[in-house]
Amino acid sequence: MPSYQWIAETPAKWDADKVRFIAEAPSGTFDSRYRQLKPGAIVPGEWWRASEGGKTVGYGWLDVSFGDAEILLVTDPAARKKGVGEYILGKLEDEARVRGLNYLTNIVRPTHPQAKQVAAWLGKHGFAGSDDGRLMRPVRRS
Asked: Is residue 39 within 8 Å of residue 14, measured between CB atoms?
């Protein structure tokens, strides 16, 4: 099992790995505004980097709204199917738990080229659809 590190980015800046994982993802995967950010720009929300052996293998993002955590997670395409997404999701839940938040929410864009697969993966991890199209899961208390 790989050993990943969870590194807070304070402040989080737009960098080459975020460009590669997010801005260069297939069209429709993420909000198009990410394609327009300049290197070094401060990015909103709280960001963490998942690293293995000094190499970035993914990112987690959390934004707090009304006692819930909207999350985003993205992995290096070369690191997929190696547990990075599960690691990031677990760490984001830990971050939400220590903040006393109630739900994790994620929005899979209808334009995402793998929307069904991503929604199914989140479903395997306890997320369920809500009335407004978001996928939600209560934050598990230890």
From this structure: yes
